[in-house]
Design brief:
- This protein has two domains: 63 residues, no CATH class; 68 residues, Multidrug-efflux Transporter Regulator, Chain: A, Domain 2.
- Helix content is 52%, strand content 12%.
- It contains five helices and five strands, in the order αββαβααββα.
- The strands form two sheets. The chain has a three-stranded antiparallel sheet.
- A hairpin with a 2-residue loop joins β4 and β5.
- It starts with 11 loop residues before the first helix and ends in a 5-residue tail after the last helix.
């Protein structure tokens, strides 16, 4: 598994190739019905069966790369260090440890080291995003009721 701190933005050439590949793959995916389609590597003429879910994931990767976003693949059940998890959430390690100690994210302790599952950290991030969206909607409704949008 690639370390989170080794992730780099794709080059302009990689972005261009990814963008073209994404468009082609997305068009083809709409017509695939088989759960394990066979693809051919043009350079070697080798044919490979790939799960459809993997091809759909590849399309998402290509889309993100085409948009110039850095990519990292993390198995869902993977355990993370507190530092890696804090980087994933975009917060400091001490703040992340505080979240763990408050019981907001489950963790296991191995000796004096805490480990968290990527899935739990990702779920927490999704939950926080949802709460932020709900608060923004509440603020907008409150502003509308107060007449702040009236001209």
């Amino acid at each position: 598994m690639e370390e989170l701190n080794n992730i780099k933005r794709p080059s302009k050439e990689e972005q261009s190739t990814a963008f073209e590949s994404y468009n082609a793959l997305e068009a083809v995916l709409k017509n695939i019905k088989d759960k394990s389609p066979e693809i051919e590597i043009e350079e070697t003429r080798e044919k490979i069966r790939i799960p459809l879910k993997a091809l759909k994931l590849l399309a998402k990767i290509l889309k993100a790369m085409g948009d110039g976003k850095p990519i990292s693949i993390v198995p869902i059940a993977a355990e993370m260090t507190t530092q890696a998890a804090a980087e994933f959430l975009g917060c400091s390690r001490p703040h992340f440890v505080k979240l763990l100690e408050e019981g907001k994210i489950p963790f296991t302790k191995i000796g004096k080291h805490r480990r968290v599952k990527f899935e739990d950290v990702s779920d927490y991030k999704d939950q926080m995003k949802k709460e932020q969206e709900d608060l923004i909607i509440q603020m907008m409704k409150s502003d509308e009721e107060s007449g702040l949008y009236d001209s």
